[in-house]
Amino acid sequence: MPITLKDVTFVYNPGTPMEVIALNTINLNFNEGIITGIIGPTGSGKSTLLMLLNGLLTPTRGNVVVDGLVTSKKANLKTIRQKVQLIFQYPEHQLFAETVFDELTFGPKNFGRELTEGQAAELLRQVGLDETYLKRSPFELSGGEKRRLAIASVLGISPKYLILDEPAAALDPVGKETIYRLLLSLKKQGVTVIIVSHNMEEVAYLCDQILVLDRGRIAAFGEKNEVFHKLMEKNIPGLSLPVYAQVIKLLQSRGHKVKMTASLEETVGEIIRVVRGDA
Ligand SMILES: Nc1ncnc2c1ncn2[C@@H]1O[C@H](COP(=O)(O)OP(=O)(O)OP(=O)(O)O)[C@@H](O)[C@H]1O
């Protein structure tokens, strides 16, 4: 069963002069086994939506339902938090334990699961580290290693849904690539991944479907290329297109019949067709 939002509205400080309608009558399903990207200009409601998905916030109106469990019912929260793990921006800032092993075992313990050293080492391997890290202090790791450790410590809880706010922010190209490989491999293992990102290249590379928020409402939702196609026409201030979509848009505006592609490589193919005069 997916995560479903039914007529969800979220208002900060309702009934006061500080009232803000952050999300307005949202209806959607986050389908399982794929990567969904949430994009939108600043203040469009992305972070609010993430916090609604694991019950950190509950809707002012409407319902968020995770595998049949309504988040606004307190009794459901522990199960929902195990299923839906939320990783905020810069999760490495929340590392606290003395050793990498303690860091990895803390979360699962809270959900009644004692990890062995072997299981902890397996989690490290999943994020491209190894068992030699187990006895080290998390604080002596590099920025990228800390980020991977923070993600590994959440994977120990075996979430069904993994939600990340800007997962690759401020990492160098190698660090970014490691996180991308990890997310794609988690998808292969059946984890449903949802990311918020301002980086359109990242969204184009990783995501199967995209949700576009604009001032608390859904501006577009669907398969990646359909959404980029829609965005070409809509032009939402504060939202750019990935380079390949910009190139296609430019070619189309000059009267060339080129199709919307899914990657830079295919876009190059379209350009070659134009240059050869096939289009
Ligand atoms: N704690 C809060 N109290 C009052 N208003 C808030 C609070 N948090 C967010 N808002 C407002 O709710 C709206 C949506 O904010 P949200 O943080 O969800 O947007 P966002 O799309 O994540 O933005 P960004 O891309 O800048 O992170 C904004 O108008 C914001 O000012």
Automatic annotation (TrEMBL):
ABC transporter domain span: 3-240
Entry annotated with the keyword Transport: yes
Membrane-topology annotation of the record: Peripheral membrane protein
Localization per Swiss-Prot or TrEMBL: Cell membrane
Gene Ontology terms for molecular function: ATP binding; hydrolase activity
Swiss-Prot/TrEMBL keywords: ATP-binding, Cell membrane, Hydrolase, Membrane, Nucleotide-binding, Translocase, Transport
Family matches, as Gene3D superfamilies: P-loop containing nucleotide triphosphate hydrolases
Protein name: Energy-coupling factor transport system ATP-binding protein
Species of provenance: Carboxydothermus ferrireducens DSM 11255
